[in-house]
């Protein structure tokens, strides 16, 4: 009786067609979700793989329809000669592959709630759902610096499957960062019920203690949910500045 042995593919080598050692292809998809629009070179540096290996995975993901080219601009916004870098984002099909809650059942329940109890009941449900998020996250946001708190919030969201990251914004007079979510487990429900997105933005404001502005959502067709966060002094966790002023 023979024993089948396998030799792991060394890091940095190009896998043969169809191979996906240690879930590398899924790691590539997850990184495209969290960091996109992102180039093959960026992914190669993060994963410590060759660009050729990453391009092999990207080609398979693009062929499967799980990622798509976002634009034809050069990486980093710098003018360069030659062929511009391809920058990738996760497609709608890719969002489904990343997984999430049983959104079909959730959507059916919310439709029933709207039909039987009205729009106000849906808004109250969305608010209650995000109140629970605030209660769970608030004790874990220990940073006193606004940027640090935003980064902590992104880490908590990422752990819950939102592929979140914080990115600096160049140019505005008031220092600002963007909280980006490359995946949303309830995206398809939010397409029919924007109250979920509105309640989430309110939860972010309460957790960060500052006014936030939602610029784009996956439910609205963008490649990520993007929320502007001004780096102003924070108020106590779980309360927005506007809430404090309204109680004086």
UniProtKB/TrEMBL annotation:
In this chain, composition skew of type Low complexity spans: 1-15
The record's annotation in InterPro entries points to: ArsR-like_HTH, Carb_Metab_HTH_regulators, WH-like_DNA-bd_sf, WH_DNA-bd_sf
Q: Which parts of the sequence are annotated with region: Disordered?
A: 1-22
Lineage, top-rank taxon, reads Bacteria
What Pfam families does this protein's entry cite? HTH_20
Family matches, as CDD domains: HTH_ARSR
Q: Which PANTHER family match?
A: HTH-TYPE TRANSCRIPTIONAL REGULATOR SRLR-RELATED, TRANSCRIPTIONAL REGULATORY PROTEIN-RELATED
Put simply, this protein is called Helix-turn-helix domain-containing protein
């Amino acid at each position: 009786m023979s024993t089948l042995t396998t030799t792991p593919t060394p890091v940095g080598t190009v896998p043969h067609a169809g191979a996906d050692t240690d879930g590398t292809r899924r790691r590539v998809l997850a990184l495209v979700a969290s960091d996109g629009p992102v180039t093959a070179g960026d992914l190669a540096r993060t994963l410590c793989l060759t660009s050729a290996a990453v391009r092999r995975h990207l080609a398979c993901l693009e062929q499967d329809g799980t990622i798509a080219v976002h634009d034809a601009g050069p990486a980093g916004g710098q003018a360069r000669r030659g062929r511009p870098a391809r920058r990738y984002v996760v497609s709608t099909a890719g969002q489904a592959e990343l997984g999430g809650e049983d959104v079909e059942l959730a959507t059916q329940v919310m439709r029933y709630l709207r039909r039987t109890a009205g729009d106000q009941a849906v808004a109250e449900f969305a608010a209650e759902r995000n109140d629970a998020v605030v209660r769970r996250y608030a004790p874990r946001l220990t940073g006193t610096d606004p940027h640090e708190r935003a980064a902590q919030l992104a880490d908590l969201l990422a752990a819950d499957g939102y592929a979140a990251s914080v990115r600096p914004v160049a140019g505005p007079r008031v220092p600002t960062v963007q909280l980006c979510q490359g995946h949303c487990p309830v995206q398809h429900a939010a397409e029919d019920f924007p109250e979920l997105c509105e309640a989430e933005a309110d939860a972010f404001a309460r957790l960060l203690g500052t006014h936030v502005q939602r610029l784009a959502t996956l439910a609205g067709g963008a490649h990520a949910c993007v929320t502007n966060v001004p780096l102003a002094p924070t108020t106590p966790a779980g309360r927005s500045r506007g809430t404090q002023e309204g109680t004086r």
